[in-house]
């Protein structure tokens, strides 16, 4: 063997020395290999690295996650729900925003909205984006205030405040989403389930789903579900994602099944609807991405890479 070949083997060994094959992980955790593969492909719970020949290699962090999964299962949590719990725990640890900081941003936001101060909103939006992650911007600052104003529209003045904030956010989020369209990579269409989503919710989730590898094109509320097959045929996306934060009715579940058969690409479900329907849709043609931003992006990438089953 020449020197270059020996060096490549040595580097590969060093790269994988802290990783464990599936049989060793099974021995360490007590979870058999079949179950580990199912957790990965069906629920996206663990993401081992792969060798060039396709063999799975698990890190110590993966093993820790497997033990956490076992802990939740022992508490009676369904395996379909564990992914969202782990994702939210991870988001809290990695992107924890101090409650006082979040309240401070929200107080400034409410003040600008009450004064109908568009220039102030512009400055605040840019400041918040520069200070914290995109996920935090919406989860911890802007969307909580938006939801509060939407729920309190019976109070005099709050309907106007909500409309003011809603219009501002739709404009800024749409602009950012348009910029992300310039990225190359896999193309995803994002559509709302009929009557179950407002435009801002759809735009925000489109922005959260987008990444360097995935560009997202939103289809606005009012888009007929039955015409998605036509749009998909003409635009040729890599996947169609439906978004809703409401539970699926029996009739809607049947409509999704019919739609999946007629599409020329995979059909995925995102939002709280995906969390609630994951067990009922298991084994169907509809894959569930979850509701937490990080989990949705990860499962979408896995699915587009062929590493996540419906």
Structure description:
This protein is an alpha/beta fold. The protein folds into 3 domains: 75 residues, Multidrug-efflux Transporter Regulator, Chain: A, Domain 2 (Orthogonal Bundle); 77 residues, Methyltransferase, Methionine Synthase (B12-binding Domains), Chain A, domain 1, CATH 1.10.1240; 121 residues, 3-Layer(aba) Sandwich (Rossmann fold). Helix content is 61%, strand content 11%. The protein has 14 helices and 8 strands. The protein has a 5-stranded parallel β-sheet, sandwiched between helices. Strand 7, helix 13 and strand 8 form a beta-alpha-beta unit. It is globular. It starts with a helix and ends in a 6-residue tail after the last helix.
Portion of residues in helices?
Answer: 55-70%
Most strands sheet: 5 strands, parallel
Number of strands: 8
Mean pLDDT across the residues is 87
For this entry, give a set of tags.
310 residues, alpha/beta, Multidrug-efflux Transporter Regulator, Chain: A, Domain 2, Methyltransferase, Methionine Synthase (B12-binding Domains), Chain A, domain 1, Rossmann fold, 3-stranded antiparallel β-sheet, 14 helices, globular
At a glance:
With 310 residues, the protein is an alpha/beta fold. It has 3 domains: 75 residues, Orthogonal Bundle (Multidrug-efflux Transporter Regulator, Chain: A, Domain 2); 77 residues, Methyltransferase, Methionine Synthase (B12-binding Domains), Chain A, domain 1 (Orthogonal Bundle); 121 residues, Cobalamin-binding domain (Rossmann fold).
């Amino acid at each position: 063997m020449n020197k270059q070949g020996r060096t490549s083997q040595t580097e590969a060994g060093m790269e994988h020395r802290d990783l464990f094959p599936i049989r060793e992980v099974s021995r360490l955790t007590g979870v058999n290999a079949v179950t580990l593969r199912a957790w990965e492909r069906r629920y996206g719970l663990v993401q081992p690295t792969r060798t060039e020949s396709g063999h799975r290699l698990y890190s110590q962090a993966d093993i820790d996650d497997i033990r956490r999964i076992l802990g939740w299962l022992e508490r009676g949590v369904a395996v379909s729900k564990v992914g969202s719990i782990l994702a939210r725990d991870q988001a809290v640890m990695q992107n924890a925003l101090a409650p006082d900081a979040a309240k401070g941003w929200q107080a400034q936001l409410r003040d600008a909205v009450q004064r109908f101060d568009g220039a102030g909103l512009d400055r605040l939006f840019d400041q918040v984006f520069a200070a914290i992650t995109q996920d935090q911007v919406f989860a911890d600052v802007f969307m909580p205030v938006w939801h509060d104003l939407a729920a309190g529209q019976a109070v005099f003045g709050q309907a106007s405040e909500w409309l003011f904030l809603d219009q501002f956010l739709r404009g800024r989020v749409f602009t950012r989403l348009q910029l992300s369209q310039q990225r190359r990579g896999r193309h995803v269409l994002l559509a709302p389930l009929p009557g179950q989503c407002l435009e801002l919710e759809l735009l925000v989730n489109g922005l959260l789903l987008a990444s360097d590898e995935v560009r997202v094109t939103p289809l606005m509320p009012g888009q007929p579900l039955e015409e998605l097959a036509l749009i998909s045929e003409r635009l040729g996306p890599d996947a169609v994602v439906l978004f809703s934060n409401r539970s699926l009715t029996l009739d809607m579940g049947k409509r999704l099944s019919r739609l999946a058969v007629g599409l020329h690409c995979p059909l995925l479900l995102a939002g709280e609807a995906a969390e609630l329907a994951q067990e009922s849709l298991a084994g169907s043609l509809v894959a569930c991405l979850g509701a937490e931003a990080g989990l949705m992006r990860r499962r979408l990438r896995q699915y587009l890479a062929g590493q996540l089953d419906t």
